[in-house]
Amino acid sequence: RDNLHMISQKYMSKYGNGYFTQRLIQKIKNLDTNNVLISGIRPPSDVEAFKEAFGSAFKLVRVVVSDDRVRYNRTVARGSERDKISFEKFLELDQNEEEIFQTSKSMSMADYEIDNGERSQEEYHAMIEDFFEKNIAELL
User: How crowded is residue 69: how many other Cβ atoms within 10 Å of its Cβ?
Assistant: First the structure.
């Protein structure tokens, strides 16, 4: 995460805050598809840029895991070397993300919200399928 923040700050200070988002928007526009899933949208300016570029076709879906301990346990379970941190460090990194990217403001801009609290992976996948059929399929 530290490396990601350092690289992000380097490029954003050199090319502007929307540098990565604008590059991604151009890549999406050059694809031969109408459907793209983007994970990890952070600052509100990114949400605004996607809405400006794609209009009503852009749908922001917030996936919520409100229990910090559940989120932490899932992060650690991924087994990535970078995820071997204490719960306290996990919370500190969350707070840093909020301060840098204003993630809570971005989340408040969501068109839809999915609660992925204490569900198993199978239950979550079934819920996503149901969500897609009820909310997204008719937009395609």
Answer: 10
Structure tokens, 34: 């109408």
Q: How far apart are CA 57 and CA 35, in angstroms?
A: 9
User: How much is the pTM?
Assistant: 0.81
> 116 phi and psi, to 5 degrees?
-115, 50
Q: What are the pLDDT digits (tens) for 63-94?
A: 999 899 999 999 999 888 878 899 999 999 99
Instruction: State the Cα–Cα distance between residues 8 and 33, nearest whole angstrom.
Output: 28
Say if strands 61-64 and 112-115 run parallel, antiparallel, or are unpaired.
parallel
